[in-house]
Amino acid sequence: MSEKEKFIEMVEKKNSDQPEFIQCVREIVESVWDVYTGSEKLKKARILERIVEPERIIIFRVSWQDDAGDVHVNRGYRVQFNNAIGPYKGGLRFHPSVNLGLLKFLAFEQIFKNSLTTLPMGGAKGGSDFDPKGKSDNEVMRFCHAFMSELYRHIGPNTDVPAGDIGVGAREIGYMFGKYKKIKNDFTGVLTGKGATWGGSLIRPEAIGYGLVYFLQDMLELAGKDLKDKIVAISGAGNVAQYAAEKVIQLGGKVIMLCDSDSTVIDESGLDSEKLEHVMHIKNVKRGRIKEYADKYPAVCVTGKNVWEVISEKNIKVDIALPCATQNELNGENAKALIKNGCFCVAAGANMPLTPDAVALLRENKILYGPGKAANAGGVATSGLEMTQNSMRFNWTREEVDAKLKEIMKSIHAQCVKYGSGGGYVDYVKGANIAGFMKVANAMLEQGVC
Ligand code: NDP
Ligand code: 2IT
Predict the structure, then answer these.
(1) pLDDT tens across 84-101, in order?
(2) How many CA atoms are closer than 13 Å to the CA of 163, on its beta-carbon side?
(3) Does the C-beta of 165 come closer than 6 Å to ligand 2?
(4) Structure pTM?
């Protein structure tokens, strides 16, 4: 067995109940092994062994009462994975599937994503197995308050700055910020994704989707292509999917599919701004299901299948695929169908949305593929800009934040190209992993064994 395989086996043994964490460690190790083992200093300091071990994990009970007065118990987590280059930073996810392994994968990815943004942020993730679906606003508020009544003692503007993720948007950040402020009597930038009138950055809600499409534009430009009239399939119908769709439409692409965890809608005529506004109303205001789209506009609705399964089943032609829902949503079969149907570019809005065999197929077939830690880094980058504005006690305009976001996405793209180019193909996975890793690894080296 090679040294690399022995290393991966060690990680598997230590974390045998955490498949997503092992999956993303394996990907990083595969990418960085040669540069890592080529450096005596990094090897001697055992940087790789240290970097796969979280610095701190906090697990806590969250007890709360529903509207009927019944008591519920959920589990809360914060994984503070690495703070070599800045305070811990990363989102909170509220979803019934949340467990320690899932959050370790998300926090581990976040280390390298945050490193790529060029801003000083370490990697973390947290959340709970609480399901906000079907809960009243008051129930969500009571849960968020209960969650923050423990989390507050572990975070701070120079220590750890959480934000949103699946199931955590503006409403949840508001409730959590309110509780933090009450307990600490301190109005500070302890969370990002805050409301625009109380410390939030303009463009933060749009930033992941917009940043994803800016990154996509950079990939296409380098390959001599553009977005105009391209057919685009987007999975998910939440924050990331909505603003990715908005930017694709603005730039002349044709978005024909969206989905949620219930169903997929196909609108062959393409979404426009009015239709997208309706999607936002369904998902953000009514907190309803994407299938309701077909009640108003002519669309095919497929229940129980996500966008990629529908493409595979119906052989739908798409030029560009933007997975923006969740991890491992697009598998090898789906990747084969995409390639067969003419797809030439996949960019990940979600974190690790492709299974390893799907990634391998795209790379083998030289399909442009932007992994999440590069392509969706616009969200956390704009969180970093929110932190900067909070520290300055100043707000930048929409145009200023948007310009900085574009510049950051360009820089991430350039780092991927620098470390991932070879044989006439840019391997964005390898490029993003090496660039993200080297910065953190060198910081750890310079800070000594701790
Ligand atoms: P939201 O909660 O706003 O939306 C998630 C969307 O994905 C919903 O439409 C949801 O459907 C759908 N979805 C979730 N799980 C599944 C599933 N198993 N199958 C099909 N659809 C599913 O979350 P975000 O848009 O913020 O997050 C989406 C992805 O983007 C995640 O991977 C997240 O980690 C990543 N991301 C988020 C960032 C952020 O700042 N918010 C930043 C960077 C990446 P339903 O409505 O039915 O639940
Ligand atoms: O996955 C992600 O990058 C996020 N959920 C955003 C994290 C953040 O701190 O803005």
Answers:
(1) 999 999 999 999 999 999
(2) 30
(3) yes
(4) 0.98
Same domain (yes/no): 59, 113: yes
Do residues 240 and 278 both lie within one domain? yes
Active site positions, annotated: 125
Residue 385 lies in a domain: no
Q: Which atom of ligand 2 is nearest to the CA of 204?
A: 10
Nearest bound ligand to the CA of residue 97: 1
Q: State which of 348, 370, 392 marks the end of a domain.
A: 370
The two structure tokens encoding residue 225: 């292509």
Is any ligand 2 atom within 6 A of the Cβ of residue 91? Answer: yes
User: What is the Å distance from ligand 1's center to 7 Cα?
Assistant: 32
Which of the four pLDDT bands, split at 50, 70 and 90, describes residue 270?
A: very high
Query: Mean pLDDT over residues 371-397, rounded?
Result: 98
Distance 321 CA to ligand 1 centre (A): 16
Domain boundary among 370, 391, 418: 370
With the most atoms of ligand 1 within 8 angstroms of its CB, the residue from 210, 239, 305, 380 to mutate is 239
Domain that holds residue 133: 3-187
- Does residue 79 lie within any of the structural domains? yes
Q: Is the CB of 323 under 6 A from ligand 2?
A: no
163 in ligand 2 pocket by Cβ < 6 Å? yes
Counting other chains too, the contacts that 65-72 makes at CB distance below 8 Å and 24 or more residues apart are 65/142, 66/135, 66/139, 66/142, 67/136, 67/138, 67/139
Through-space distance between the first and last CA atoms of the chain, rounded to whole angstroms? 30
My answer on whether 90 and 239 are in the same domain is no
| Burial of 170 per CB tally in 10 Å (0-12, 13-18, 19+) | middle
As a whole number, the mean pLDDT across the chain is 98
Q: Do 33 and 103 fall into the same domain?
A: yes
Is the same domain home to 181 and 94? yes
> DSSP string spanning 183-207?
HH------SSS--GGGTPPTTTTTH
pLDDT per position as a tens digit, 224-241: 999 999 999 999 999 999
| CATH number, position 51 | 3.40.50.10860
- Do residue 161 and residue 306 come from a single domain? no
Closest atom of ligand 1 to 327 CA is: 32
Residue 393, phi-psi category: left (phi > 0), alpha (psi -120 to 50), beta (remainder): left
Quote the ligand 1 centre to 165 CA distance (angstroms).
7
What is the number of structural domains in the chain? Answer: 2
Q: Is the CB of 22 under 6 A from ligand 2?
A: no
